[in-house]
Amino acid sequence: MDKKGELYTFGIGENFHIQNYFGVHREQNGNEEGFVFRVWAPNAEDLHLIGDFSNWSEKPIQMTKNEAGVWEVFTTLPQEGQLYKYLVKRKGGQVVEKMDPVAVYLEKRPGTGAVVKVLRAKKWKDSLWMGRRKRFGFKRRPVNIYEVHAGSWKTDENGKPYSFAQLKEELIPYLIKMNYTHVEFMPLMAHPLGMSWGYQLMGYFAFEHSYGTPEEFQDFVESCHQNNIGVIVDWVPGHFTQNDDALAYFDGTPTYEYQDHHRAHNYRWGALNFDLGKNQVQSFMLSSALFWIEYYHIDGIRVDAVSNMLYLDYDEGPWSPNQFGGNRNIEGYNFLRRLNGIIKHYHPDVMMIAEESTASTPITKPISEDGLGFDYKWNMGWMNDILKFYEEDPIYRKYDFNLVTFSFMYLFNENFILPFSHDEVVHGKKSMMHKMWGDRYNQFAGLRNLYTYQICHPGKKLLFMGSEFGQFLEWKFDHELEWGNLDDRMNLQMQGFTSHLNAFYKDHKALWQIDDSYSGLEIIDADNTAQSVLSFIRKSGKGDMLICVFNMTPVERKDFTIGVPFAGVYEEVLNTELEEYGGVWKENNPVTRTKPGLWKDYQHTLSFTLPALGASIWKIKRRLKK
After folding, report:
1. Which of helix, strand or coil describes residue 283?
2. Residue ranges of the chain assigned to CATH 2.60.40.10
3. pLDDT of residue 1
């Protein structure tokens, strides 16, 4: 696309690769080779380029503005690797130093200078994975996500976060060992403060310096793909950091943010909200999403804080109704539909995930059916209910059994991911292990039960790092995981159980092939509140089935009986109370033959010993004639 085309499409919200024009690029100008810099600041009174090559503000380089409000300069002075900023004379006369909004790499925090960097095409070696992704997609495949904060999974001896070169050597083998299908990273885009966990962004194209280089992350993704692991990255299109050297009021007027003061300011998070109805902002945001998908080959984007983009009254500050008198953020709603439509047009095999907590907007319905077009929505209701239940003293669980069963009422209203995320193990909420009821033994028994229920419940899965081995302390963003916990036998056994459970999930199609309809689920008994036992069947598309039984109390139940659909010889394929997992059972229940007998609507019964606070999963070993 020529220069006029770049500017025109940018101005109408149709430029989906603005990084090819804006930012810094090596160019030949006549006989001179140098760099061209371009930045959008339509209302700036003046603008200069400053950097290492100009002794910063000592010898600023004048830029010129075109009719589209884009400032540009060609210069032979910079060298690759040097730092630069823009010296912006805002409307009103204030002069500020600003980062490049389209920079692909920034200097180390707390600095915000952009690096003069030429992105070079990588010769990718992940064609086998990309071909399988395109052919098989993810809807009928296992999706079990390990959520990671790159800055605190592990640190070196000086407390410095691992770079992605180091994570490639240690995290990928760990993902393989633990049998996860995907890894999801909290935002990897440049952010000024680690305390924000990456959710207060300033660089929407820039890779966070703390985590290494863009090339190192590319190599990490490539290695993940070569080991059959997908990579998902969190992205924050709703709001951005209000730091004055970043995007905030870039040219002295609302540039990326809303014109209305209250709509521009996110009072809850101390941030600024993108004006998602502005054409140039749409070009900026859509280009950012596609850049991460195409340049880094990532397999999915989790869109953070969708509710903040959907509802005018979601924030804690003053708000005004839309032109129809309602609370719908019409610009945000339309942007999200457009985002998913464009990404699915170019990359239909990329997973689009919404972090959204309300139920009044169809999130995963197709755009053609007035939905937003996401592939998945985090099931926050299920997560809140189930954690409340497992934290409760088992004596009272029979009175609150609906917390476990209520999700079956709305199970397929959306396509869900079942998340136990970073948000559940901070701010005094306690770690996953520490949430569990009882003494240390029962806490681990409860955790094994809970994770098995998550794996068996319809929906894709997500677990935050450290939870897989039952870390006792809450997550701390500035401290690595409590790897020393693994010196304790119970933590080590918990880690081994999670690995085995994840492998069990991958190996059984009944647990993932039909996650979006009742044809993959059959409830055996959801009414046994007195004993707090839940039983149901998961089915694959080819008739495979698993019978899943959960005892939610610390009482072993001998000769426990349920109805089953087929006469046969059944074998227990998973028992969470085996000694190798930290329980007390030395071996599984014996292979058991059904008996004829009416049990609810079933003609056959299966009896076995149900472990205390345990989960027991069965499959047919041999069918028998009635």
Report:
1. helix
2. 3-115
3. 77
Asked whether 211 and 260 are in contact (CB, 8 A), the reply is no
User: Which residue type, as a one-letter code, is found at position 495?
Assistant: Q
Q: Write out the DSSP string of 287-312.
A: HHHHHHHHHH--SEEEE--HHHHHBT
Listed in sequence order, the residues at least 6 apart from 522 whose beta carbon sits closer than 8 Å to its beta carbon are: 536, 537, 539, 565
Residues that are catalytic: 304, 355
Q: Are 155 and 480 in contact (CB under 8 A)?
A: yes
Domain with CATH 2.60.40.1180 in the chain: 519-623
- What distance in Å separates the CA atoms of residue 208 and residue 192, rounded to the nearest whole number? 9
Query: What does the pLDDT read at residue 595?
Result: 96
pLDDT band at 626 (very low <50, low <70, confident <90, very high): low
Residue type, 546: L
Would you say residue 259 has pLDDT above 80? yes
Stated as kind and residue range, the H or E segment containing 595 is strand 595-599
SS3 418: strand
SS3 state of residue 217: helix
Beta strands 416-420; 460-464: pairing state:
parallel
Pairing of strands 182-185, 189-190: unpaired
Mean pLDDT value across residues 74-91: 97
pLDDT tens string 392-427: 999 999 999 999 999 999 999 999 999 999 999 999
Q: What angle do CA 391, 395, 399 make, to 5 degrees?
A: 85
Question: pLDDT digit string (tens) for 356-382?
Answer: 988 889 999 999 999 999 999 999 999
For 386: left if phi > 0, alpha if psi spans -120 to 50, otherwise beta; the answer is alpha
pLDDT digits (tens, 9 = 90+) for 514-566: 999 999 999 999 999 999 999 999 999 888 999 999 999 999 999 999 999 99
DSSP annotation string for 9-24: HHHTT--S-GGGTSEE
Q: What is the length of the chain?
A: 626
pTM assigned to the model: 0.97
Nearest to 268 by CA among 236, 239, 237, 235: 239
Three-state SS for 187-205 is CCEECCCHHHCCCCCCEEE
Classify domain 519-623 at the CATH topology level. Immunoglobulin-like (2.60.40)
CA 520-525-528 angle, to 5 degrees, is 150
Report yes or no: 183 and 167 within 8 Å, Cβ to Cβ.
no
Q: Where are the alpha helices (DSSP H) in 330-484?
A: 330-346, 380-391, 402-405, 407-410, 432-435, 440-456
Q: Give the Å distances, CA to CA, from 45 to 62, 97, 227, 327.
A: 12, 14, 53, 37
* pLDDT computed for residue 222 by the predictor: 98
User: Which of 437, 466, 465 is closest to 450 using CA atoms?
Assistant: 437
Task: Residue 7: count other Cβ atoms within 10 Å of its Cβ.
Answer: 20
Among candidate residues 282, 334, 339, 203, the one with its CA nearest the CA of residue 11:
282
d(CA 498, CA 495): 5
Whole-angstrom distance, CA of residue 132 vs CA of residue 349: 10
Percent of the chain with pLDDT over 70: 100
Query: Is the domain defined by 3-115 classed in CATH 2.60.40.10?
Result: yes
Ordered strands of the 545-551 beta sheet? 521-528, 533-539, 545-551, 615-623, 568-575, 592-593
> b/e string for 188-202 if b means 16 or more Cβ within 10 A?
bbbbbebebbbbbbb
